[in-house]
Amino acid sequence: MKSLLARFIPEARDLIESSSSGLLKLEKTPNDISVVNEVFRAVHTLKGSSGLFDVPALTRLVHVAEDLLGAVRAEELNIDPQLVDHLLSTLDQVGVWINHLETEATLPEDADRISQSMSTVLKQAFSKSGETAVDGKSGADAEPEFRRLAASALDGCDPDDRFEAFAQLVSGLSVQCVEYQPADDCFFNGTDPLAMMLSLPGLISLTAFPVASFAAITELDPYRCNLRFQALSVAPKSDIEHHLRYELDHVVLTEVYAEDLIVVSGLPSDLAVFGDFYNEAVELLARDAFAQIARSAKALGAVTGPDLASTKALLWLASALEASTPDKSLVAALIEAVLTGTFRRPQVHATPAVPSALRRPFKRALDIISSQMRGLQEIPFEPSVLTGPKATVSNLLRSLDRDELLDSVETAGEQCVEAGSFDPFLHLLEKLVADIPSFAGAENGAPSLSKAAVEQPLKVDEADKGSAQDERDASIRADPKQAPSRILKVDQGKIDALMNLIGELVVSKNSLPFLARRAEEVHGSREMSREIKEQYAIIDRLAQEMQAAIMQVRMLPIADVFDRFPRLVRDLSRKLAKDISLVIEGGDTAADKNIIEALNDPLLHIVRNSLDHGVEPPAERVAAGKPQCATIGLKAYQEADYVVIEVNDDGRGMDPAKIRASAVKKGVITPDEAGRLSDQEAINLIFRPGFSTAEKISDLSGRGVGMDVVRTAIEKLGGRVSVTSRIGEGSNTKLMLPLSMAVTRVMIIEAASDLFGVPMDLIVETVRVETKRIHKIKQAEAFVLRDQLIPLVRMADLLSLPARPLVDDAEAVLVCRIDGRLVGLVIDDFRVGMDVIVKPLEGIVAGIPGFSGTTLLGDGRVLLVLDLKELV
Amino acid sequence: MPLVFEGNVIRFDGHCTVEEALTLAQALVDIKDVEIVLSSCESMHTALLQTLIAGQPKITGVPQSKDLASLIRTLVRSEG
């Protein structure tokens, strides 16, 4: 499974890249439907593939993007730059997750929340389209990260619970206030808000309020949720988000600070002891003698009346002083509360004295640095690796206004190169981790007293909200690309160039035998000819080895594609409540990288078709007398220069009658034509554009990527696809693809006094047939080859050229297999087999039917390569 | 049936699900001096909780979950 993930990651990157570039194109030409399709398909595939892994947040987000693109495709939604922005930032986010997946094999903890908030933005873009432009910032604003609680927000919360939460907060935990207002119809989808809140991780207190005041019991609709909940929790924010991941739309999380929790209430008192305590405490506070204040507070609290407000204040004060470094302003406010009996929030948090530009989420900076450290600790030293982390740390320092430290980053980098290890750089990072909290303290204009104070720079007011988004973008950009691996990554273009060169070499070495003949015939040097032939043998061997080697570079096992299917079949069969076992054979069959990669989508489509439409539900299978468990087979094997992939199922098979009817209904063919089709021809109709028998669109198949797309894709690769099916017994789809695409083996034949090439893979055998063995059946000719009647076609007739008169009384017959049927081609003579690079016909001759391309012979002549499928 | 009816007493027993909500709402209307016993209640659905809040019946016994108990205590009058 791990290797599957390793393959998914580069694929996902490719898909993200192609959709991003497609989106950019779309921004310029919004109406280009082919680009829309391209982007849609890429995102669709990304969604499908991501479903194989446990990354629900990613899949959900991509799904929303796909829906949006689907609407664009259906012309329900217009592409505008803002929409493109949203989609691109979605793709960026997915890219970040992919990087995280690569290093950690899981999504980051906050993925659920980000997925949720970005999906909301995308959905808004969808619903608002057409009327007004969407506010591009709403996604960032929707993040509850930097909210503060209102002073009265926790009034409904039990004072004892608040005290407990306060104690936890003072001890160093962070406390979250969870406000949850379920949708009023949530009971109908099985949601039980109460149960969910009662099982909230780290729950300290839970309160509930009616949303609207309750009607009389006689009027009550008990199935309409009229409660909202408020909870305090000490669990990490990400845990809470994960727990409430399906309801995040209805949940607001707010970080709770110490002063939010303090509530001082009770009987007023003007006892002199409180005044004395106040005077003493103020004095002690000036000297930072926290321990002494705590002692007096506890002593006094134990003897004064428990119902007095001042006594309550003493308890809070004692608790606040439990902190390792108590918050001075908070302590001062509590000391005052002891005297006055009312607690006034200290003002320092609400209006920080420093300009907003200086306040940045330092915590994020710490996260970034620690992730860089983790990355560097895990890999062997390599000078080039440092570039990314160095740039990231430098940018970080700049954003924290610590430009003076930039030099130390450079220096550490140089030391690393000298030392041949990352250690100097890691030391620097360690130092930064230690120092960053003090940057925060310094900017606060106050010594960092408690945890709340250390984290204070995280509390950003309205004006600074945008920075959350900026920060995320920055971390996206700064994220180091990917860890290097031992594998040399080479641009595919370079391999292709090499491949082309070798192809040319293979072809030009073919000219040496001609040269040898000239040496002998023209220059009369038999010895020279022999030497050239010897050299030719060597060059020939080397060229072939070279070609094999370079092909090997590009060869991948077909298992690369097959590996994703077991999970897919398992998941889909569960979803469809079908019992299906997948049998894979021949996974080690190798084929060219291009072919393997291009196989992915068509194969996915065919397998999904089999699952969705081919295999019957278990009950139907049992009724038909078949085993309940259906079998889908994936088989790959090599056949001559082809790799053959078969997908078969033992499902219900295709009904030619149904296909005929459907094709007529969809206007693909006329009823007349339908009547004339054989069953196999009817089945072949599924390859026609615009044909899809699926009556309902499910999320498995039927997104408009029909079998015609499969055929186009396969034929583009120089392959063929065929489907056979028997009603009640199942279907078999067979893909035949060339092993390699660069060099084709052709046989040179003589026909109508000229030379032509015939692709070797079509040729079954060559025979000489005596004229008396050729039978005439009306106009047509045929002969019997090993008890099989083979129709004959004369090549000269096909080419409309005069035939060469027969020399002896035997015809040269090339037996070919065309579209699965054997045909005998009568030609003048056979020549040699040859490796050539077939160049397509271009320019003025491009439209000439019957030829697939041209190639150069060793003596410089142009050889036309016949397209027998078209000719015969 | 997690809701056990005994005269004017309705006892919540074990896990009380959303299906009981309508029955409970009707019972709160129909039964005179209705009394709800929660001591053997292990959990209740939100719908039941809000029905109790709307009906404000007499409650005796506290549910086993401490958090649920304190919710009931603050939201429904308690005379038990």
Q: How would you sum up this structure in a few lines?
A:
The complex is a heterodimer of chains A (872) and B (80). With 872 residues, chain A is an alpha+beta fold. Chain A is 48% helix and 17% strand.
Structure characteristics:
heterodimer; A: 872 residues; alpha+beta; Four Helix Bundle (Hemerythrin (Met), subunit A); six-stranded mixed β-sheet; five-stranded mixed β-sheet; 33 helices; B: 80 residues; alpha/beta; Transcription Regulator spoIIAA; 3 helices; 38% helix; 26% strand; globular; Chemotaxis protein CheA (chain A); phosphorelay sensor kinase activity (chain A); Sig_transdc_His_kin-like_C (chain A); two-component regulatory system (chain A); CheW-like_dom_sf (chain A)
In the CATH scheme, the class of chain B would be: Alpha Beta
Question: Roughly how much helix do the residues of chain A carry, as a percent range?
Answer: 40-55%
Helix content of chain B: 25-40%
How would you write the strand order of the largest sheet of chain B?
1-2-4-6
Q: Which superfamily, in CATH terms, is the homologous superfamily of chain B? A: STAS domain
What is the subunit arrangement here? heterodimer
Distance between the termini of chain B: 24 Å
Separation, N- and C-terminal Cα atoms of chain A: 48 Å
**Separate helix tally of chain A:** 33
Give the tally of β-strands of chain B: 6
CATH topology of chain B: Transcription Regulator spoIIAA
Under the CATH scheme, which architecture of chain B would be assigned?
2-Layer Sandwich
Low-confidence segments of chain A = 130-146, 348-360, 441-485, 693-704
Structural class of chain A: alpha+beta
Rg over C-alpha atoms of chain B, rounded to the nearest angstrom: 11 Å
Second rung of CATH, namely the architecture of the largest domain in chain A: 2-Layer Sandwich
On the 0 to 100 scale, the average pLDDT of chain B is: 86
Q: Largest sheet of chain B, described in full?
A: 4 strands, mixed
- From the spread of the alpha carbons, the general shape of chain A counts as elongated
Our estimate of the beta-strand percent of chain B is 25-35%
